[in-house]
Amino acid sequence: MTEEYGCFIVESDKISTEFGDKIVKAYQDLFDLPVETKRRNSYPSEPFLGYFGQHPKVPLHESVGMQGTAFEAVQRVADLIETIYSLMKSMEDISYIVSRMVFESYDVSGLYEACHAQMNHATRLMKYRGQTNGLEVQKKNGEWVSAGLSPYSFVFTAGEGLMAWSNGRISASHHQVTMGKTGKTRYSFAVFTSIKWTETPEELVDEDHPLQYKAYDHDEYMRYISKTGLEKDPLSLKAFCGVN
Questions:
Q1: Long-range CB contact pairs, 63-67, < 8 A, 24+
Q2: Boundaries of each Isopenicillin N synthase-like Fe(2+) 2OG dioxygenase domain copy (predicted)?
Q3: Within a 10 A sphere around the Cβ of 182, how many other Cβ atoms?
Q4: Which uninterrupted H or E stretch holds 5?
Q5: What count of other Cβ atoms lies within 10 Å of the Cβ of residue 43?
Q6: CB-based contact 233:224 (threshold 8 Å)
Q7: Cα four-point dihedral sign 111, 116, 118, 124
Q8: Tens of pLDDT along 167-225?
Q9: Please, which residues have CB within 8 angstroms of residue 110's CB and are 6 or more apart in sequence?
Q10: Is 87 helix (H, G, I), strand (E, B) or coil?
Q11: From CA 122, how far away is CA 93, in angstroms rounded?
């Protein structure tokens, strides 16, 4: 499924209806803060973290990206940090389980612990005004299909790091959020898992699968695409560390 679509759906019973309601309330409290307060969530040396909003090209979108839970504005909102941290931990646990499954599926489970020690998680909370259609993923034939999520499901989408690690066996998932006409606000919670030093295992390189990517540092790649503007170019990783 991951090789075919670059994503799959994980069903979990860790998120109850009551907890889901607390999450929505926490989101509302966070995004209702003054813009000046939200902008203090800043990571000058970390591309793609911090506050994003009030942009003329995407006026209906706001997001807050965090590493850890030290965001000053979050700490000011009653119960918000505890609620978001609980969801972060649940998502991280699921991420670890899924990552181990991927390693096992390629018969390299012995390499998991070393990679696990290098894993980093960044969290982004997103708000979309005026849409209800939700997440869509693109099939290999170019068709966009709805993810069709239930209240207790999460989408695991492969990124470029997993594409490089798998030596191109898994493609990075193309996905989007579409806009509707009902005016209803949609909140999304995303956890981005990365490995500090990404290197294709030698077990995944053979005559049928020659090495496609050199080993690279994730932070250096993030700085590269933030400067080059290639973050939406599927060839950006190839340009950064591809093997000619």
A1: 63/124, 63/125, 63/126, 63/127, 64/30, 64/31, 64/38, 64/124, 64/125, 65/41, 65/122, 65/123, 65/124, 65/125, 66/41, 66/122, 66/123, 66/124, 66/125, 67/43, 67/120, 67/121, 67/122, 67/123
A2: 130-193
A3: 9
A4: helix 2-5
A5: 15
A6: no
A7: positive
A8: 999 988 888 877 665 567 777 777 778 888 999 999 999 999 999 999 999 989 988 88
A9: none
A10: helix
A11: 14
Structure tokens at 98: 């899924």
Return the sign of the alpha-carbon dihedral for residues 91, 114, 67, 60: negative
Residue 21 makes CB contacts below 8 A (sequence gap 6+) with none
Q: What is the pTM of this model?
A: 0.74
Torsion, Cα 121 201 171 146, to 10 degrees, reads -50
Q: Please give the class, per CATH, of domain 1-241.
A: mainly beta
Structure tokens at 160: 């470029």
| Structure tokens, 147 | 């993810």
**3-state SS assignment for residue 145:** strand
Cα 158–9–156 angle (5° rounding)? 25
Q: How many residues does the chain have?
A: 244
Q: Which two tokens stand for residue 143?
A: 């068709």
Which residue carries 């994730």 as its tokens? 218
Q: Has residue 1 got a pLDDT over 70? A: no
What is the rounded CA–CA span in Å between residue 177 and residue 112? 32
3-state secondary structure of 134: strand
174's tokens: 């193309």
Cβ neighbours of residue 25 closer than 8 Å, sequence gap 6 or more: 83
